[in-house]
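Today's session is about reading a structure prediction critically. Students often jump straight to the picture, but the first step is always the sequence itself: look for stretches that repeat, for charged clusters, for runs of hydrophobic residues. Only then move on to the predicted structure, which in these notes is written as discrete structure tokens rather than atom positions. Here is the chain we will use throughout the hour.
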Amino acid sequence: MELISSHSCWGGTQFFYRHDSIEIGLPMRFSVFLPPQAAHGPVPVLFYLAGLTCNEETFPTKAGAQRYAAQHGIMLVAPDTSPRGAGIEGESDSWDFGVGAGFYLDATTTPWSQHYRMYSYVSQELRNLIMEQFPAAPGRIGIFGHSMGGHGALVLALRQPEVYRSVSAFAPVAAPSLSPWGEKAFTNYLGEDRKSWAAYDASALMSQASRPFPHGILIDQGLGDKFLEAQLFPQHFEEACQRAQQALDLRLHARYDHGYYFIQSFMEDHLAFHARILHG
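Below is the predicted structure for this chain, in token form.
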């Protein structure tokens, strides 16, 4: 693991790292914010998964989360959004597929299956690295994300509720099997069999669940989001939660769009939500 840079921030430290990933088979980058409380012992860990075109720097530089993480004594971890440098033909041709668009799944089709293994990377390899190399409190792990990353956060949490004690999202792609973004990614990464897509569709996973998160799930969605009607489908996830008797706080906000000004506006609420659960 190689330290790229470190920066004092709100009494803690923001780090950027590079390491050789076994799951991905390529170097991967990630960021870690250690709150001041980490100097005195293990702290809860909150993973953030970013959206399309983003990387490990987007969240630390745009979301304004460190201030609230320092207040609550929570470590923040943000991985990159895809492998880089795989050398696959066409992987950089589209902004919504390939580089910067790993969709937090393990690809099963050739040539993507060799390197595009973001689900296993985030849920296993990176999580284990954080728990081993940083002052992370065992059993106190949460996850959240935005857009494609909101999809990833919901999917990882629903598939591993024994690992993630808390989950929230900003404008998630909540039913990717119905979304043009999701259909493009799933067809290329997973193949034409739509049954296989359900393993990475939060609404489908929730439909098969039974109250996996007793403390509830928090989702914020802007009503001025240009992607709301065609890509995100929060109502499908809400209906799945009702069937699963899963408590969901789906908050709809007039005027707010899909960007980080929206995320900044409600970041304090999300950190407080996770803190109540992870410290509880």
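Discussion point for the tutorial: Residues 12 and 35 are 4 Å apart (CA to CA).
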